[in-house]
Write a structure and sequence with these properties.
It is a single chain. The protein has 348 residues and is α/β, with parallel strands linked by helices. It has a domain at 3-144 and 232-273: D-Maltodextrin-Binding Protein, domain 2. Helices cover 47% and strands 18% of the residues. It has helices spanning 3-13, 36-53, 75-81, 91-94, 113-135, 172-180, 193-198, 209-215, 217-220, 240-244, 248-281, 301-323, 325-333, 336-339; strands at 25-30, 59-64, 86-90, 137-144, 148-152, 166-169, 184-187, 204-208, 223-230, 233-239, 295-297. The chain has a six-stranded mixed β-sheet, with helices on both faces. The protein has a five-stranded mixed β-sheet with strand order 2-1-3-10-4, with helices on both faces. It starts with a helix and ends in a 9-residue tail after the last helix.
Amino acid sequence: MHVAALILAFAATSSGAQPSASAPRLRIVGGLGAISQFTLHESRFWNEDLRRLSGGKYSATIVPFDQAGVPGQEMLNLMRLGVIPFGTALLSQVSSEYPELGTPDIAGLNPDMPSLRRVITAFRPYLEKNLRERHGVELLAVYAYPAQVIFCKQPVKQLSDLAGRRVRVSSNSQADFIRALRGIPVPTEFSEVMANMRSENTQCAITGAMSGNTIGLHLVTRSIYTMPINWGLAVFGANADAWNALPPDLQALLKAELPKLEAAVWSESERDTGNGIACNTGAAGCTKGTRGAMVESHPSAEDDRRRREIFAASVLPRWMQRCGRVCAEVWEQTVGPVVGIKASAIPQ
């Protein structure tokens, strides 16, 4: 849908979205609707907790962005325009237009949750400033989704096994990672993953461990390689004018409570990563989802070394080539010092 048409569509449904002086009922566009981060945390906070925490003074409704008819790549622009006063943007999607925002979750950068947390801590001040000054958006939370791992029809015990295989990817940096392994990246929307696997268009797929289980990947693949290729990050923010129009006590309440929601989402992401692997392999630790019989392969120390080598020699340079000088500067100011890779040392 064209942005102008979206403006008209949301104008018809968002007449109550702008806060009033009395008791605003906020309208929120949240994250992906079918996963635990939304169903267990985002939805409950906005539909229930806000009213309770404010003593009934304030309330909200929330709809996941993938059910709101909003193109993910346009979310940040629609927030800037005020069409969506309070919204959630996936960094992997908005980074197609603003590649510097994809810095903290480039494929191969974060092999575990502690690494991801350190990188976000380093990147967050820049992210907050960029959103406020360039996009007119007040950053209120950063959400993480579960680790993106590799499902394959044939056994995969190490990264080199992906050579020659057609692998579903969802971002440019994932594609760069697979090419560096001499695999064949196949960009595919999540909704098309199962159809592609059944049609033999792909032999492997990079996706979340639990989301893969939810759509039935454990029924059409045999092997799961549990190295996190990346994670999936989202920002929740408010149009600056909408935020400034909120009553001060509601601003203070959200500033106090949204960090708790953020922490809960991150914890759920970590649990879902482990639970998804347990369910796909049929392990006793499977507490939700469907038990499969996949074979799990853990990344070796050699593969972790190779991940870092591919990231520094291939994925990161190609990302910087697409982005230009601004990304090199952002890298040097934020993430580079944390991971020990200088932009000046990257082959061009």
